[in-house]
Amino acid sequence: MLKKEDKIYVAGHRGLVGSAIVRNLQAKGYRNLVMRTHGELDLTDQAAVRSFFEQERPDAVVLAAAKVGGINANNTTPAEFAYENMQIQCNVIESSHRFHVKKLLFLGSTCIYPRMAPQPIPEDALLTGPLEETNEAYAIAKIAGLEMCKFYKRQYGDDFISCMPTNLYGPHDNYELSGSHVMPAMIRKFHEAKVSGAPSVELWGTGTPLREFLYVDDMADACVFLLENYDGEQHVNIGTGKEVTIRQLAETVKEAVGYEGEIVWNPDMPDGTPRKLTNVDKLHGLGWTHKVELQEGVRLAYEWFRENADHARM
Q1: At what angle do helices 136-156 and 78-98 cross, to 10 degrees?
Q2: pLDDT tens-digit profile of 278-310?
Q3: Residues 237-255 pLDDT 10s
Q4: Do 241 and 119 meet the contact criterion of CB atoms below 8 Å apart?
Q5: What is the pLDDT of residue 9?
């Protein structure tokens, strides 16, 4: 059981996920947080990671650091996604074991599931079919990470748990168009079109795929809930259990931004997985449900982007 005075290392604290987890931990009274930027600690460097753990001796670890990106980035640099993510995971998980970390939470992604997984996707759909090719490298790395947590628990009794958040969005997201996910890309495109007075915005694909979106502060609340209440071997899905088409999402973002032009869909660009909805029965059964619905979340995300455009990841 975590104590408020426990030293908690949040890896990836400046990203979308890590920064939200830090906010949630602090709001719940956890003050002894340890953080390092990439410049201060390269998590792909095994010796540096071991030295950090030996010096700091954290009681708990949240592994939210990863090389992430959208379809284009995953498609064009798969070797980098596989290699860097597996390095980060192996180094942090092994050092957590070596230096007797009491609790570790590993964050994966729902892209770990087969392309044609049953919908909504239950946790036991893992490794039951082929992956989506456009993010296969990232998915394989994340599968390796959650399986490592399971193996360390089995062999050594380490309290290492995993969760699989659905598509996330919110403060500190990546708005760089060549590497961003669908939500921040839409927010930036509609905002810039509104500012420039452009008559239309082009979006990738057909708009027909179904996706689930979770506001990142809800995700963080679920993660801290799991740190405090869960010690099972199986990973836990984190999501809303609700889905929209990409076309519906575009209309929601367009409305939040206040853009009045036309949306032009480019069917020559990839759609990705046709449908991806998580089964969140396990998480609901543990006692947690989301609070922020999509329309409110998009409005909050756009407000943050507009107020922080000068130093957002662009």
Answers
A1: 20
A2: 999 999 999 999 999 999 999 999 999 999 977
A3: 999 999 999 999 999 999 9
A4: no
A5: 98
Please, what is the Cα angle at 90 between 286 and 92, to 5 degrees? 70
Long-range CB contact pairs, 264-269, < 8 A, 24+? 264/200, 264/201, 264/202, 264/203, 265/202, 265/203, 265/204, 265/205, 265/206, 265/207, 266/202, 266/203, 266/204, 266/205, 267/205, 267/206, 269/204, 269/205
Number of residues that this document lists for the chain: 314
Mean pLDDT across the stretch 21-32? 98
**Percentage of the chain surpassing pLDDT 70?**
96
CB 89 within 8 A of CB 147: no
Question: Against a cut of 0.90, is the pTM above it?
Answer: yes
CA angle 180, 186, 188 (to 5 degrees): 80
Annotated catalytic residues are 138
**263, β-bridge pairs:** 201
On the CB side of 229, how many CA atoms lie within 13 Å of its CA? 14
Confidence of residue 275 (pLDDT cuts 50, 70, 90): confident
User: Can you tell me the mean pLDDT for 25-32?
Assistant: 98
What is the maximum alpha-carbon separation in the chain? 60
- For residue 120, whether the previous peptide bond is cis, meaning omega lies within 30 degrees of 0, is yes
Describe the crossing of helices 246-257 and 294-308 by its angle, rounded to 10 degrees: 50
